[in-house]
Amino acid sequence: MAAVALFKILGWLFAEEGRKCKPFDETCQALGVVFDMSDSDKFLCKVANTASRIEEISSEIRRVLETGSISQLEAQKLRGRMQFAESPIFGRRGKRCIGCLRDFSCRRRSRITTSDALFLKLFLSLLKSEEPREISLQHESSVVMITNACYDRESRDLICGFGGVLVDNVRGLRLFFSCRLSEQQRVLLGELHKKQIIFEAETLCALLAYCLWTEIFSGRMCFLYVDNKGTKFSFMKGTSKNPIAQVFAETETHVKILCWLARVSSFSNIADAPSRGDCNLLRSLQFRDVCGDATICLEKLCVSIEQKLGRTAGLAKPMA
User: Fold this and answer.
1) How far apart are the first and last CA of the chain?
2) What is the side-by-side order of every strand in the sheet holding 133-136?
3) What pTM was computed for the model?
């Protein structure tokens, strides 16, 4: 009664009878999306695609997979529906799946390739395994991570180094790592075929920090500052073909934490010195050294990336 009275006072036009007149409830549906407010007393709202929307898109994708082709008009319609349905799906992996329809929407081709089919099947699995996306009030302050990498092929001492810093004021945590890449790890980043691998190094360093400290910022907001525009945008877009960015997107989906990505210049980057092996300032500020854990995590990441390079892009399992 209060809601109806408010709408009338404000002069809103709304359905007071008929099919669109739904009873007041803890959940409501609008344009194929379900809003669940049953936990609103905990300042929590859940958003998900409706069962009918999921089945509609799934049926169309299965039809395309069976026929093995799709017209320009069909691709445009399916792509639009997938874009709408992707919003309530957690993470950025869905964007890469939607991207496989770009050529078809522009009438560049009509036959579905093996790669296209794999991405469409991946989107199907994301739809079916979808958990409601949660929007909540954050009571705790955010966790801040800052990373930096250096690379100098001609150096006799440190060719490629990583540095990372974490600050969590709520728990009173101040952590850092400083490590260097082995020759084998640099080869994995393409050192034998490229003059410069600083983008790959910066990207892997950021992924290392994210995976290393996942448990600390689990269920909270986090900021990840990097010193490379390419790293920032490859992580943000979620459509990069770079295997490191793919692992980041998969890990982000797995832990259900979306971080804010931004760039910080070297002059203001507290992780710049540890990336070059200088940790004196951080130790004087009583930051705790976690280099051992970072080295172990880095080795696991390199194994995962190496496996991905031998697989079809986008299908590697999320890292634990």
Assistant:
1) 49
2) 27-30, 33-36, 44-49, 133-136
3) 0.76
